[in-house]
Amino acid sequence: MNTSFTQVTQSTKTRFGRLGQYGLLIAFVGICLILSLTTPRFFTVQNLMIIVTQVSINALLAFGVTFIIITGGIDLSIGSMVAVTGVAAASFAHPDTYPVVVPVLIGLLAGLFFGAFNGFVITRSHVPPFIVTLGTMTIGRGLALILSKGRPVSNLSDSFNFIGGGKILGVPTLILILVVAFIGCSILLKKTVIGRYMYAVGGNEQAARASGIPIGRVKMIVYTLGGLLAALAGILLTSRITTGQPNAGQGFELDAIAAAIIGGTSTSGGTGTMTGTLLGALLIGVISNGLDLLNVTSYYQEVVMGAIIIGAVVLDSMNRTNKN
Amino acid sequence: MNTSFTQVTQSTKTRFGRLGQYGLLIAFVGICLILSLTTPRFFTVQNLMIIVTQVSINALLAFGVTFIIITGGIDLSIGSMVAVTGVAAASFAHPDTYPVVVPVLIGLLAGLFFGAFNGFVITRSHVPPFIVTLGTMTIGRGLALILSKGRPVSNLSDSFNFIGGGKILGVPTLILILVVAFIGCSILLKKTVIGRYMYAVGGNEQAARASGIPIGRVKMIVYTLGGLLAALAGILLTSRITTGQPNAGQGFELDAIAAAIIGGTSTSGGTGTMTGTLLGALLIGVISNGLDLLNVTSYYQEVVMGAIIIGAVVLDSMNRTNKN
Amino acid sequence: MIPQPYMLEVTDLTKTFSGVVALDAVQLRVRPGEVHALMGENGAGKSTFMKLLIGLLTPDSGEILFEGISLKAANVHEVLKKGISMIHQEMLNVPELTVAQNIFLGRETTGGLFRWLDDSVRNKQAAALLAHLGVSIPPDARMKHLSVAEMQMVEIAKAISNDVKVLIMDEPTSALADAEVTILFGIIRELTQKGVAVIYISHKMDEIFTIADTITVLRDGQYIGTYPATELTENSLIKLMVGRELDRLFPESTTQPGVEVLSVQHLSRKGAFSDINFAVHAGEVLGLAGLMGAGRTEVARAIYGLDSIQSGEIHLKGQPITIKSPQDAIRQGIGYVSEDRKQLGLIPALSVKYNITLGNLSTYADGGFIRSQRESTAAVDVMAGLRIKAAGPDQPVVYLSGGNQQKVVIGKVLQANPAVVILDEPTRGIDIGAKSEIYKLIHELKASGIAIILISSELPELLGLSDRIVVLAKGKQTALLSKKEATQETIMRYAMQP
Amino acid sequence: NQSTTSEKNDDGSKKLVIGATMLSMQNEFIVNVYDEIEKKAGADGVDLITVDAERSALKQVEQVESFIAQKVDAIIMNPCEVEASSPAVAKALAANIPIINVNSETSAKPSAFVGSDDVESGRIAMKFIADKLKGKGNVVMIHGYMGQAAQIKREQGAREVLKQYPGLKLLAHQTGEWDRAKAMSLTENWIQSYGSQINAVFAHNDEMGLGAAKALLDAGMKDKVIVVSIDGIPDALQGVKKGTLDATIFQNAEQQGSKAIETAIKAAKGEAYEKQTLIPFQLVTKDNLASFLKP
Ligand SMILES: Nc1ncnc2c1ncn2[C@@H]1O[C@H](COP(=O)(O)OP(=O)(O)OP(=O)(O)O)[C@@H](O)[C@H]1O
Ligand SMILES: Nc1ncnc2c1ncn2[C@@H]1O[C@H](COP(=O)(O)OP(=O)(O)OP(=O)(O)O)[C@@H](O)[C@H]1O
Ligand SMILES: [Mg+2]
Ligand SMILES: [Mg+2]
Predict the structure, then answer these.
(1) Predicted complex ipTM
(2) Which atom of ligand 1 is nearest the CA belonging to A6?
(3) Which architecture characterizes domain B40-317 according to CATH?
(4) pLDDT tens by residue, chain C, 498 residues
(5) Which of A52, A63, A299, C7 has CB 3.0 to 4.6 Å from A185, enough for a Cys bridge?
(6) How would you class A304 by CB atoms within 10 Å of its CB: exposed for 0-12, middle for 13-18, buried for 19 or more?
(7) What distance in Å separates the CA atoms of residue B89 and residue C20, rounded to the nearest whole number?
């Protein structure tokens, strides 16, 4: 019997499927090439380091959002969490008060709590994550203002300011932290049971439940992770600008979600990779940096930025559909 | 042979489904009641008129977004469209230049074009609406700034300012326009073939396609409608504040989407009503007005606002699940 | 009979998916008024073929002539308008819309001065259509509230509501019991008498020989041939389809039932079933029989923790247990293969491998980290054991043919090493070869001491495999029959008890 | 034609490159400051790289980092925040690039400062109200975006004056987020709850002042309530002319812009420059309006 009816080696198919990923990479490399040719200041070690540094905070948030979107959810509150956790950390980071671990732990704890609260409400009620996190986004902003009495929390210790502003062996700490977080998140998503469950929950929640997957716990975990990563971003941001700003992080949620989706995470859940998200964040960062270097007038920058993002993703998706 | 094997009479089930709608109404009435009891100024004709006036612009945007979300899409660009269309209209609304229909038509045309562009890119490419409209949101903001050179366009004719700022028989024009738009949108959604197709496309795009429904055309229509309603909102806002502001409408998209989702439109598409959306917009408006009347400090306003919105929707959804 | 001209002529139709040939130069000629069966194993390309006809997919090459006119560039809308309609295998409906709205989707009626939608006319027409099909589904009920079988009837109603010339039916009966199948056949005969051509796809052999005039066979995307039904026997047809002779469908079992594994006492769930009592033993197959909507699936869901129960007890190996979720059930050693693989069985975007290991992932992990080597080995074993046809373990399960998807679900449940397995319509949509494999598998499971609860609407299957049979009617248990007592007639009698 | 530091002027001297990061190019006042900078830069043959920080201190710090990497000759910064924009100053100074703050301050001391003291504007506005109300009455205040430097300072100035006048009562204060429409809605709501109790409105910028005035006008209360706001944008000057606004506190954008670029050029060339140029706020009322209205 001729059972191998799928004669044409089908592994090409999967290989092609993965090749779809490269559409974005090609767009990204293309943009980098154009920038390298048009401005000599683009392709310098220093500028590339600056880009990665600038991208890092958005990338951290986008990692968190990627987990959440893969399970079919969304989190609009991360920008506010950046502010709350930043202000909370800053309040304990004045010189000669506590050792530097204290503000860091307090910031992370605040993020943990906040994210867990999102997860709790979302799993317990049947309210869509969009509304829950829109609510906590507003609540978080208010809390940041209350905590700081509406004023920036400044005068932070040097050791605290080092976390997000220092360099180790010439490499900015932000880049190092980004690399570690990227590896950690990738492993969590691809190599662990909980990561697999995230895909399952987002891919078909009902079937996941019927397969014995604890849906509620998975969701709790992703929103808590989102909170933790937002806290990390908040602490790094605060440290980098040496102040806890109650109005920091506004609009960060859209940038982070954009990075994830540009990177191929589907808003309907079930698909996405950390590599894609990182690439998405880098793409946004490179365009923004390039437009500044080319001294494009700020109004036109917005137009060009929007157009390039759409263009890059159109290219990417054309690539994918051709392959299928 | 006895062939009537379906034993459960199902019509009761659908009736319960509709009852779910009332959960939000109950929350809304409850909040109104509490406000009426705590501040005597809340339940006056004048104040209620002010609330509706203030709500109207968000409601118009939310109507547009409701169409779009029902088809399973999203539109983040409406806030920018408010700015572009407002600035465009204002540029032709200076006294003693053109008759008042000219700026209105130009504004609407700009919205039509913008919305159609969204629809075109979304239907032609396989790029998620989130990214496309995030891109056009950025582009739109840039265009508004370019058009106005970054400055408010003021000195508008009285007849133009009347559109969104006047009263007819003591009733603010905004309220009248809101009522007309509400009726129009409700009819379109519930009473026309194209409205039915919106539900079908959002409910199951594959099934809609297999039934011969022109998916692309339906999507073009909803995004264009979204653009037109955003233009209407932009013109009214410009007229109400008597200037075309290039930075108007920031964050409007989130408010409008919130109104739609609070009103029961599902982010995954296929469900939603204009009545629900209107109720959602009114709920937000009433809370915001009430907090001002009660003179709650701004920081706490945000916390309370977020909490009430989550609370109201939790109540609503508990109500629904109980009924099912 | 004078041979009439062909109504539909397909020549050399070819379709590839990312380089993989799904259909290779297939032919089809259909005359008006005939029932033309399209036969082939799971994954042979039948559904793909029909989707090409209806315009949902575009062919790479080949010609489709309908009444002499080429259909090649036509889209679904145009094809539907020309009078070709299709009942889809995967039940394409809009869950939030009502039954009537689904039936007439794309063909709404408008009325009055403003030409607004008028559902009342359509509701009446839908009610009439459904009554004609012998079902009492309210036309204003939401689609999402219907059972799988009811949805299937609505799909049929939708397809025949169109003024059709060619009606394509892709496994219309896979979710139906005998009673409805009889009605459906009546309707097919009505239609063919009016000159409608029916292209009929099914894996149920008896149906084919009851209804088909002509049979076209596909194998692995290749055109094998077209034959008058009278020239073929069940065995010769199977041979054409699978390319070899099949063993006996129901092998003789020698396994003797062992100790009691699972029992339920006075199990009740409001609005679904009440006072259900039975026990299933190691190495035993307990059949659950009943008409559509009798509550068999509901009982299974409740045991598996997908629904809550109001009263009654579940005992596992003599110990009372409480099951609040599928997670509990799996932990206790209960497995469930759902009748609704699309909703409850599969994660479509995930690969075959990931779907198979999903229910028991921690076995392949150390400290939360998945050992991919171990996982792959296990998945490949399952795939080989169940003969799952896929490009490989990494192919997304959504691209598998229906029958192979079903095997993936079974594989997932089995590799969690359950003590009891509930199989709810396990052979729905499965080809004859795979069916015999699944029957063999059930015997193997029996032999290895697993207790099996089998829900099936195919009485021969139920009778051929079960050691004892519980009959349900309208949520009540009306009989518990031994193998000797159980015949088609007794089961039907108890199933129709008030 | 993107300039590089090696480009030459017509006279053969090295072409100067100056980077400017502005708080928000969507703010009319800032745009006015910037226009002046650009005009002067063009006239002096300076290459100006301008970026918009979009009110984000983080973005601003990053932009200055980018300027440093590009080795510009001087930086003009229109700070987003007092504290949060400070690292930018420190980084520029560490790289030996002169940095000039324009319009508002940072806590880190830049090479030079050109601008006005926002606290002063709050003081002038509230003093005007106090004088008009003869030290007795009810005031409401509309804040800018909470937590931003300008909001904090303008509030601070206003509160200083309020303290001096025990007869002045702050009835209510909320944020209008610098936005005309939001301030208008807020004022409408206040009219509902306080009605004729309101004697004066102080808004942190003209946009919001104009929104409040429109709400009062619609309610027929404008002639009974004093409205004062800050910036002196053209719309506000028109408002003062029409009487919808009672006063605006004029902040001289042109002078701030031109002084900033002048100082930056001097610093870039290594010439001596003023470390601090304070451009005072000016109260604009109907009486002195003529001198502010452009022909
Ligand atoms: N969109 C697609 N992308 C890739 N491969 C596909 C796609 N659709 C179908 N296939 C492949 O084409 C082949 C034929 O599938 P098809 O669904 O037509 O089979 P079938 O004969 O209808 O089987 P069944 O009896 O199980 O329904 C299968 O191998 C399937 O995996
Ligand atoms: N999710 C649901 N919501 C509402 N009603 C449902 C739901 N699922 C099933 N029902 C109803 O419950 C009744 C019992 O259905 P069930 O699927 O348990 O029957 P069954 O005996 O398994 O028959 P079959 O599997 O042949 O349909 C059906 O009439 C169906 O309409
Ligand atoms: Mg098929
Ligand atoms: Mg069933």
Answers:
(1) 0.88
(2) 29
(3) Orthogonal Bundle (1.10)
(4) 455 688 999 999 999 987 788 899 999 999 999 999 999 988 889 999 999 999 999 999 999 999 888 887 778 889 998 999 999 988 889 999 999 999 999 888 887 777 788 888 899 999 999 998 888 899 999 998 888 888 989 999 998 888 889 999 999 988 887 788 888 999 999 999 999 999 999 988 889 999 999 999 999 899 999 999 999 998 899 889 887 766 666 777 777 888 999 999 999 999 889 999 999 999 999 999 988 778 899 999 999 999 999 999 999 998 999 999 999 999 999 999 998 888 899 999 999 999 999 988 988 999 999 999 999 999 999 998 888 888 899 999 988 887 789 889 999 998 888 999 999 999 887 888 778 888 888 888 888 899 999 999 888 889 999 999 999 998 999 999 998 899 988 998 898 876
(5) A63
(6) buried
(7) 55
- Which stretches of B125-267 are DSSP H helices? 129-148, 158-165, 173-191, 193-203, 205-210, 215-241, 252-262
Task: Tell me the two tokens of residue D203.
Answer: 């808004």
> What ranges do the domains of chain B cover?
40-317
DSSP secondary structure letters along B275-300? HHHHHHHHHHHHHHHHHHHTT--HHH
Q: Tell me yes or no: is domain C260-495 CATH 3.40.50.1240.
A: no
Cβ contact D99:D88 at 8 Å: yes
Is any Cβ of chain B less than 8 angstroms from the Cβ of C270?
Answer: no
Which candidate from C20, C343, C369 shows the least CB-CB separation from A207? C343
C-alpha A128/C-alpha B204 separation (Å) is 19
Q: Hey, are the CB atoms on D174 and B50 less than 8 Å from each other?
A: no
User: What does the alpha-carbon distance between residue B72 and residue B63 come to, in Å, rounded to a whole number?
Assistant: 15
Q: What is the per-residue pLDDT across D29-59, written as a single tens digit (0 to 9) for each?
A: 899 999 999 999 999 999 999 999 988 889 9
Non-local (6+) Cβ contacts of B149 within 8 A are D31
Structure tokens at B283: 């709920």
How close does chain A come to D156, measured CA to CA in Å? 11
- Mean pLDDT value across residues D197-211: 96
Contact between chain C and chain D (3 or more Cβ pairs less than 8 Å apart): no
Ligand 1: atom nearest CA of C17 is 4
In CATH, the number for domain C8-242 is: 3.40.50.300
Separation between Cα atoms, residue C360 and residue C335, nearest integer Å: 11
Residues with Cβ within 8 Å of A81's Cβ and at least 6 positions away in sequence, in order, are A110, A111, A114, A115, A140, A227, A230, A231, A234, A249
CB A269 within 8 A of CB A77: no
At A2 the pLDDT is: 35
- Higher-scoring residue by pLDDT: C98, A20: C98
Q: Are C296 and C472 in contact (CB under 8 A)?
A: yes
C388 CB less than 6 Å from ligand 1? no
Tokens linked to A97:
């008060």
Nearest C-alpha neighbor of D227 from the set D172, D259, D187: D187
Pairing state between β C197-201 and C214-219: unpaired
* Closest by Cβ to C94, choosing from B6, B199, B214: B199
**Which amino acid makes up residue A177?**
I
β-bridge pairing D226-231 and D247-250? parallel
Domain ranges of chain C: 8-242, 260-495
Q: Are the beta carbons of C161 and C103 closer than 8 angstroms?
A: yes
- CA dist D90 and A161 (Å) reads 13
For atom 10 of ligand 1, which residue has the closest CA?
C399
Whether residue C43 has its Cβ less than 6 Å from ligand 2: no
- CA–centroid distance, C170 to ligand 3, in Å, is 7
Q: Which residues of A touch B267 (CB under 8 A)?
A: 74, 128, 130
Contact B247, B83 (CB under 8 A): yes
Cα C219 from Cα C242, distance rounded (Å) = 7
- Extended beta strands in chain A, E state: 167-168, 171-172
